[in-house]
Amino acid sequence: MKLRRPRMAPSAYVWLLLAAIYFVIPLYSTLDFSLKENKAGTPCCTLHNYGWVVHNGDFWHTIKISFLLALETIVISLVLFVPTIYWVHLKLPRLRPVIAFMALVPFVVPPIVMVVGLLRTFNGAPGWYYGTPWGFLATAYVILAFPYMFFSLDAGFRAIDVHTLTEASQSLGARWTTTLVRVILPNIRAAALAASFLTLAIVMGEFTIANLAAFHTFPIFLQYVNESQGFPAGALTLLSFAITWAAMLSLLLIGRKRGARGAVVPATR
Amino acid sequence: MADEGRRVGIATQAAPRALRPDLASGRRRLPLAWLATLPFFAYTIAFLFVPAASVMIGAFQDKANHGTFSNIRLLFHHPYIDAYWGSIRISLITAVAGAVLGMFIAYAAIRGGTPRWIRSVLTTFSGVAANFGGIPLAFAWIATLGPLGVVTTWFRNAGWDITYQTPHFQISSERGIELAYMYFQLPLMILVIAPAIDGLKREWREAAANLGAKQWQFWRYVGIPVLMPSFLGAFILLFGNAFAAYATAYSLDNGINIVPILIGDYYTGNVLDNPHIAQALAFGMFVVLAVMMVIYIPLQRRAARWAK
Amino acid sequence: MEDYEAQEIEFWAKLEEEGMSRSSMLRRSVAAAFGLTIVGNAATALGATKAKLASPPTHMTKALFGDLVKNAKKEGHLNTIALPPDWANYGEALHTFPRKYGIGITNDNPDGSSAQENEAIRSLKGDKRAPDVVDVGESFAIAGANEGLYAKYFVLNYKTIPRALKDTRGYWTGDYWGAVSIGYNKTLVPNPPKTFKDLMKPEYRGKVAINGSPLSSNSAVSVVIATALANGGSLGNIQAGIDFWAQMKKIGNYIPVQTTPQTVASGQTPISLDWDYNNKAYVTEFPAANWGFTVPADGVYGGYYAQAVSAYAPHPWAARLWEEFLYSDQGQIIWLKSGAHPARFNDLVARKVIPKAVLASLPPASLYKNVKFASLGQQTAAKNLIAQQWPTKVGG
Prior knowledge:
Strand content of chain A: under 5%
CATH architecture of chain A: Orthogonal Bundle
Order of helices and strands of chain C: HHHHEHEHEHEEEHHHEHEEHHEHHEH
Strand content of chain C: 5-15%
Largest interface: A-B, 102 and 110 residues
Structural class of chain C: alpha/beta
Mean pLDDT of chain A: 81
Shape of chain C: globular
Distance between the termini of chain A: 17 Å
Number of domains of chain A: 1
CATH superfamily of chain A: MetI-like
Radius of gyration of chain A: 22 Å
Oligomer: heterotrimer
Largest sheet of chain C: 9 strands, mixed
Number of helices of chain C: 16
Number of strands of chain A: 0
CATH topology of chain A: MetI-like fold
Mean pLDDT of chain C: 83
Low-confidence stretches of chain C: 1-12, 14-51
Radius of gyration of chain C: 21 Å
């Protein structure tokens, strides 16, 4: 076969262009609005609203809390779900539909109902769990992330040959933990990253549970601004979008670096 | 690939018994196998089933906490039954459109020939957009296609007033909500299906080409069947995601008759006040999703059979 | 805006610096939503506070007022709930009271509903973060009184409050009322509607929004009732109102968009039907929107909210001092500035104590001459009719 630099297929251009148009236009409309000022009859374009957001102490404070909370949720979720799904794919395939079904339950329980049930049940729990976002809220968010985690990781595990990889690794003398960490994990890296992105976005956007459990997270601040300010709300929306996107990119870079080192089975691409 | 499998098999045969997972996973290991899933089940029972149970029980109680079926019976009357149809319609349409279009977009970004940075941008953007919802998303769409939106104004200046000239389009309508929902359905699909598309090894395409298969034949006999289980899983996820969505719909069209909005009205509004009806509505959502799963499982099993 | 922003930051800063027990805060908020019973030494906690100070009086008199202030200051704190700073000018009240008496205020769940307020009282008995006072819709006030959630209290100026606006047993007192109004963006709506019937004109296509859905917002229900009155209906039969909005939806004038500060400021909801005091607040809040409002003459419908003191208030003296503050001339005028009619409005007018500037900023009194209020039974019937018909006739 003649070696030539692969060109992008024309259909790919079309699809990506359509996607870009669809996604960018609403953001542009918000941008257009955020550059307006709260004075009658002023012509376009002021950065006043962005200044308002950036100089707002609450903004930085709550973003930090939400971001750390998201990281914690991601870690707990991965530690909980990856081994389980791996195990299910390997040894207990009949359990898969059961877990898939369970993964739909978070959709059915409205967050309002979930937070009441949780608070009622864990009323007597110690302060370090019940009274801090790092305990109570993270726990609830892991549940919220569960459907997205499950279906992403499931798709990832499906794409690799779990049995072969495990057997190969074991026949080379690896323990289960080594197999999991150094063989399986690098191969589902894409799926795990996707699941992590979704979890990050969920935590940065979840309002109801945090509100009723009286924690001061970023979405609470966002909602308050949306309900009481006019113009800054648009600026805040775009800024939070940009910041969350930056967070994802950094996750991607972290994931990429580790992946390059750790893969035992060379990528087949 | 079959070659590799055989080689590994031989290596396995020769290995000492302690390292033989195939022998080791005999009857004695089975209880241990289930044990490994214990943390997961313990967690979900504690933090998921307990609140879910309170809903299911509450659905069958009245305000005096006596058992009753009246809440459930109510669900079959207007406007509740209409709310379920509304929710199912919106969820099905956005799930199908999101799944199909999302797959094409993901494939376009991942396939050979497309620069790698496009994929990174797309996946990270999708991560953010997948959870971009509620008031901010609704406002973004109102600012775009609302009566005074940016795009509406473009069309109006070009001579087409889409707000009332046919063909006309209202962002505050079921179609408008579906259009807005795509903003998080498409990214969700892209994120979930991308690893599966990665699994479509290039060698398979080359092998198929070597055997004389055309583009569509590859897809029909290899590509689609391999992707189908993940596609179905993603579809279910999209359906559930749309089914449970609340804030975006309310901010775009607060009169739309869908179940999550009704639940909100009964649980915390200033007008209606009957948490048990809200719980019954949630129970109904559970039933709908259960039905989806019942359809999904055999479909998925058939699809997975091929992928083995 | 700076004020409210500062207040919000102050609120959260207080949380941090008090190192407030998250447990209590959690329990309070949950209860605020749903009514849980709280485990814990409710009775003893309540007993402990009460042991320090004697029970406050039920009827306030000038002689007892000094004691009220003294004991309230000893308590040193007040818990309020669900008071948005830009609703009826509560921002100013929440700002002035602490500076006047040195009693700090914690305002929980600013966007909460009346239902949540009553729930908070129910479930937080004995918790020191429970609300001391509530400001709820009329039907919730009556329900709460019957349930025993409130304490009897007659403010100093009780006699100057019209009979129709208070509970004669003393459990709740009407605080302010407003009438349904039509707010509009003068730039985008150069020829503003003057009556409800006007709204059907083709020039308002795609421009008319209600603040909320009648299935969850009390002010939206009131809008439907007002339009019923304007279209031949009555307080007892609001079918005409539902049909009006069904028609408005059909011809495309009504856009079921949730009115938010963003949509008002950006002009995406150029006409918004809401209480007059809310529309009035937009006038100064969003100069860019060039907002104006009017109370249509063909359907003047009023609704009032009510103050009540919690029967389980953790700060009973401070709670009553807050009520005295709200019903004093100063407090009443604070409400009046927002455009809401305080309960003692007629008394204030008769004694000529309203500053000229405030009077000038209000809509003309003639607009309110024919205001109608619905009874509880009429309101319930209206809500039930809406719940049955709105989703299919107007929704979607």
